[in-house]
Amino acid sequence: MQIQKHLLLAPAPGTQRELLSLHYGTPGSGPKAYIQASLHADELPGMLTAHHLRQQLDALEAAGRLQGEIVLVPMANPIGLSQWLLQGPQGRFELLSGENFNRHYPDQIAQAAAAAEPELNQDAAHNVRVLRRELQKAVAGAPVATELQSLRRTLMALSCDADIVLDLHCDAQAVMHLYTETPCWEQCEPLQRYLGSPLTLLATDAGDNPFDEACSQVWWKWDKQFAGHFPIPQACLAVTVELRGQADVTHELASRDAQNILDFLAYRGLISGAVPPMPEALGDARPLAGCMSVKSPVAGVLVYLREPGATVKQGEVIAHVIDPVSASCTELTAPVDGLMFARECLRFITAGASAAKVAGREALRTGKLLGA
């Protein structure tokens, strides 16, 4: 294993942060997988899972079982990890710009395509190599003016040529669930099985260019651009893996999740030896546009009646909001039939805030599909 340190643009004199990446296997000897943890720096299950991955990857590499390259970034956001206010972590948004750390990744699709086009032909594997090479050049040459931009460029430079990209996150309180683009679903379905996830949410360009889509959408967009001229496969499976809730930080869960990820990498040919049998599917894929928020019209004490993972019916009461002054009780109901896969941690809710998310089977929303 090789350790690389990447210096970020210093935000002020006397301060400079660095990003650490761990490199296993041999570049170019097989497929490449890229795994990062805690891009939202206060979402810690991924960081512990990366710790267990590191231990197992050390052993696999020592045994000569790695085929290809695996890059692990065990702490993807040193900026967010340093942001605390009154003992509370502020890891989702950069306090300087107010921007979500998992949005607004740069787009070098047109630039890389223009540079690659003269070399493209009817060999799909050749086209993948050429496009990856030009994408790497475009990412590396992109100018940055802020520390946050330099973090985004560094993460993209490490991941943009990968066959598999796993971005480890978590929700507030939730069952495990995945986000990926619709063109990636065929490749993602085995991952969902190995992870034992009951839900994958699918969209094509959900809006604001989050990290996973910045890695995967280049391929289906190039395929659309060159349709009828050059074959362009979906050469990157990029998935946001939501490792349950923020408090689900245990060695038992993290070691199991790490092993399940490695089982999937073995299935994809990055680890030699017997491939673990693919588990039965525990869930399905549903449109992200069918994921509906349960919002409260009033403020008050939030009392949940259903747990994450519950199957609910439209109109079913899933929570109460109690006004401690008037003693009124407002019922919050499921907006659609579906899986209530996530809910909030805090037990006081403000008017208009979301209390839970229910994944239905029909696409009901349009426009930007991701939250803040």
UniProtKB/TrEMBL annotation:
CDD domains for the chain: M14_PaAOTO_like
The protein's required cofactors: Zn(2+)
Gene3D superfamilies in the cross-refs: Zn peptidases (3.40.630.10)
Organism: Paucibacter sediminis
Residues of the Succinylglutamate desuccinylase/Aspartoacylase catalytic domain: 30-267
SUPFAM superfamilies: Zn-dependent exopeptidases (SSF53187)
Lineage per the UniProt record: Bacteria, Pseudomonadati, Pseudomonadota, Betaproteobacteria, Burkholderiales
Annotated signal sequence range: none
Keyword set, alphabetical order: Hydrolase, Metal-binding, Zinc
Name of the featured protein: M14 family metallopeptidase
